[in-house]
Amino acid sequence: MTANEALRRARARRGWSQAMLAQRLDTSSQNIGRWERGETRPSPYFCEKLCELFEVDTEALGLLEPAPLTASETPIAVPELSWQEPILDPMRPRFSIPLTQVIGRQGLLDDLFTHLQNRTNCVLYGLPGVGKTTLAQLLSQDARCQHLLPDGLLWVSLGPQPDVHTELLRLAAILHAPEDERRQARSTQELVHYVQRLIGEKRLLLVIDDAWRVEEARCLLLGAPQIACLVTTRLPEVAMTLSEAQPIPVPELDMEQSYGLLTQLAPHLAQSPPKTVQQVLQYTGGLPLALTVLGSYLRMQSIGGQSRRIETALAQLSDASLRLNLVSPQRAAMQRPIQPEVIPWSLATIISISEQHLLPAARHAMRALAILPAKPESFSEAAALAVCGSGLDILDVLLDAGLVEGAGEGRYCIHQVIADYAQLQQQETTPGQRLVDYGQQMCASFNVKEEQRMQHMTSEYPVVLAALQVALTRQQTEDVILMVLALVPFWRTQGLYQQAEQWLQAAQAMTTAEKPGYARLLAQRAQFALLREAWEQAQQDALAGLELSVAPEQHEVHATCLLTLGLVAQQAGNDTQARAYYEKGLHLARSGRDGELPSRFLRGLGNLALMQGEYQQAQVLFQEGLALAQQGDQLELMCQLLSNVGKALQLQGDYAHAEQRLREGLALARRLGYRTNQILLLLYLGVTLCQQGKTAQGKALFLEGLALARQSEDHGQIKRFLMNLGAVAFEEDAYEEAEHYFQEALVEARESQDLTSCIVLLTNIGVACGERGAFEEAQRAFEECLPLTHQLGDPWLLSNALCARGEVSLQAHQVDEAEHWFQEALAVYQDREPNRELVTMSRFGLAQVESERGRLEEARQVAEQCLQVFVEMNHRTAEKVRAWLDRVSPTTASIEEGARVAAQEEGDSLILVHEEVDNKILVHEEQKSMPVCPHCQNSHAVRKRGKSRSGAQRYQCAQCHHDFTPSVHRTMVPVDPRLPEQARLLAAQGKSLRAIARELGLHHTTVMRWLNAISEPIPPAY
Length: 1022
Prior knowledge:
By secondary structure, this protein is mostly helical. The protein has 50 helices and 14 strands. The radius of gyration is 40 Å and the shape is globular.
């Protein structure tokens, strides 16, 4: 066929590209190119559209039929056919899945349809059983595909041993070619051309399923202009070769999608325990065929609704052999020509087909790699080579076969189902010993101080755990103990306390008290029990370790046990005993060679000083310990001590330096990947920022720390972050949300018998209830809290709880009680070094009491002194004090006098009662008429309901129980016109809103309004 120059010139005269012409004809630019090159001819439909478009006849466009060939040139005749119905290949899968029931594949179907629109060869590849054939079937059922390709579907199933010639003859028969003409083709290539001419311009979907070799798949691609080809293969190499663009990988389903498919097949699983369902999902690894097989099996076992039968079936699924040999009822109905005989279609069957095509060396390597952790975990190239004992070429063979997958540069993974199959075939013990040896090498080279080795251990940790499990199964006691003790620093820095406890207990069970490592295992168990806040277990293990470590060569173990006992005694409130343990341990540690232990005992003594309110002494001890840790390059301990120094500075009100030290520690912990230290530093730094009024930054750190704590399953730290998030919600006036956080954390604190946290949480709950006006609930919380504070003896906790109760008493207008509680808070520090923050809070509370009693000048003077202290500390309470002073100004007395005169004259607004008390006039103010409830318009049942944080009076209607705060109409005060310009200049210097407001003596919202009005970028609020 010659090139169609007439069509090309007609297009060029219009100034159209091939793509522009294709768009007008609703076809592809590739088809236009084929027409113009003479490779194909337009169908009658497109001939008619071309003539209409160019307004000429078929002859002018070179669209006439070519002259007939001579007898010697005549190819196999093609019958003229007119299909009234779409072609449906009888070899297509005989199952139908409603698109409404498709889970997790809609995005892939959309991508496939886009490829079909462009008429490009699309190739799907993935693991056996991942659903490639099902996706092809779903695509053929898609209404969009049927509209795009209305002439039908051709389906070719290849498999490992296909007969391409027979498949082509079958396609010719489907296309209604006479049998005698089909038999005229002498070669496969002639038959390919014949089938191409049979298809002609028909718009068909051609599916080539389960391609194993490129040459066979290419024979069947046909290359007809209007067909769209979809190829599926389990081999990545075949996919890359056949695809015109990038082949499309078919991933496994994620956990949520897997759960949806499994419960769709076996609905009764939705009522099963979550752990049981989680285990079943883990068996499948998100593989759709595995989910289908297991779901169908469980559904069959649920017939009759007998729970006994269902529980038995779930228990049986723990047997990998049973899981792999279950037959899929859906797949059994769609046998393909893989083998001459009919075979049961199970997971073991489809994996064995891939394995049979491997060389013996690759087969042995696959079975060896199955001992490594399965997906979603991964393993390094070094681990793979060490375990399988072969070279990279064998690993590449497994990659090309799709039995091992890449998981990033130098990392690989193996699917759970493939690993189960390979383990069942494995009969050698050598790979297990190789894995143990590799785990030993990893532990021996691990150093918690080196960032690179820390990262390597983090990525290889699942492999090391697998090595530990093999050593434990084989009762290799020395290997288990050595690896467990080597992993202790990793478990500690990553917060993996539960795993550490399990492995330490397993290692301890393998040895006896006479062996040297036994005491060290006990000491480490005690340390992790302490981290898990299991105080009794920590004490028992430490005492047992103390008795077994009296020999001079075990002084480090002995000192570690003393440290644990000191921490337990401190937690129990026995400070004298704790100090004795710390001082004895410090003396022992200084005489030893371990440079880390002295710093740990100094840290313990510093924490004891903090608990007793001796903040400067604590800071001195922490600094000494930090210096020793820096000398010995003890990076983990440096992070811990930086957090302690920051906390000591924070408690002294030096927030700027506290923040600096905490950020220094956080940067170090993040660089080295110390998750435990990151959690602690995020907690302390978040608190420090919130105390400076940087609530948004503090909340972000709390959320980051909470996520890390959940990863570590550290319930103690989870509780603390919940407490602080509740405090943030409180600052945002979301009192119910705050109380919810506090109550949730309180449950955790009671379960762990954490007395300190119980006190803090009960204090916060009392304050939150007071803000809501629920004074009875607040009183119950404080009545439970205060005895606990006296029992613990912590001055900070006691003073804080007393101040909080005084504030709630003020809100309830119980002035005498408020004075009592604030005086009690001050008395806490009579014989101790005062806590600057809490002393100032108590004095400000007493200033408010004086104001309520009418002693305004004295109250204002004390409040101004408190404001100065809070400003020096950069404390968030400074804003509250400043707002209170704005309300209680020197003109307050004259305003009240004017109100009294007006009340006497008009007799309807206020009643003022004067009483002589110590030659002072005490003013009591009562409203004669309450505000009207905006909900029910009632004024007789309205009662006071405490005050908001801004000091505005709140009310509640006893009739409809509606809470409300009457709107306040403020009188606008003239503002210096130079202030907005000063605010703009300060903002241009990069100062924050609050910093500008403090400098100009304004509220930060006023500054924000000015900057918005002049379209200046608003600096961060903190």
